[in-house]
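JOB MANIFEST
job_type = single_chain_structure
chain_count = 1
residues = 319
[input]
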Amino acid sequence: MTRPRALRWLTLTIVSLMCLSTAALGQVPSSEAPPAAQEQPVQGQPTQEVPDTPPPVAAEDTAEPAPLEPAETDPAAGEPVGMEEAAPLPAAHDLSPWGMFMAADIVVKSVMVGLALASVLTWTVLVAKAIELGAAKRRVARALGAIGSARSLAEAAEHSRPAYGPVHGFVRAAVAEHDLWFAGMDKGGLRDRIASRLERLVASSSRRMTKGTGILATIGSTAPFVGLFGTVWGIMNSFIGISEAQTTNLAVVAPGIAEALLATAMGLVAAIPAVVIYNAFARGIAGYKALLMDAAAELQRLASRDVDRAMVSLRKAAE
């Protein structure tokens, strides 16, 4: 083969390879391919218009996720409609003492009202009895001063006044018993008879002063148990409510138990002051009784002294 012919074949081979590579590079994916070049109309052929609309694209490539429509809201309730309803929250409870009282069962309410009345009665007895006991002690103290300065029963009777209270009755009883004595009777018998009269008068005055304090002892001993009854009843109702609601949520259980425990608290509020006040009055009445006994002892001494004077006078007269 001659050189010119070899060069010609080499040139044709290179051109063919270039054409094949160009054809291979020109085949690109449809999604990335550039817009096709406009075909040049050939002379003598009618031109065909190409529509401007882009070629159809696969639906899965162009599909966009549908926007989430906002859930409709109920204007009255203010909560979304069409969504899953959340679990209802328990209603708020008024946990003040008055709110718990109003929400309690009728039996628990009755217990609370009874304990409240008992507490009011306790403080009423405190005020009334403190005034009465204080005034009685002052009267006995004045009477003791008057009797202590007397030299005989007759002089003590002259100084005695009804304002002295029970001591005035003591003086009258001692004088009456002394007037029944006459010369020749046993002096010890007179002393015993006067002591017996005065002892009964002291006991009567002490019992009169203790009137009204017995209710304090009753309240102090029974109020805690009455409050406990209200608590047991309230807790029983709470457990019944738990069974009906089929929930153990503390927010549901706690208000009923708190209402029940309020009854116990009121029982203690009524019982503790009643016990303290009763003990204070017991000590005060014991002190008042001691003053009465001092007055009675003073009158017995005066009576004994009068008897001794009478015996001495009789002896002198006999001589």
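[summary]
The CA atoms of residues 30 and 36 lie 11 Å apart.
Confidence is low (pLDDT under 50) at residues 28-90.
exit_status = 0
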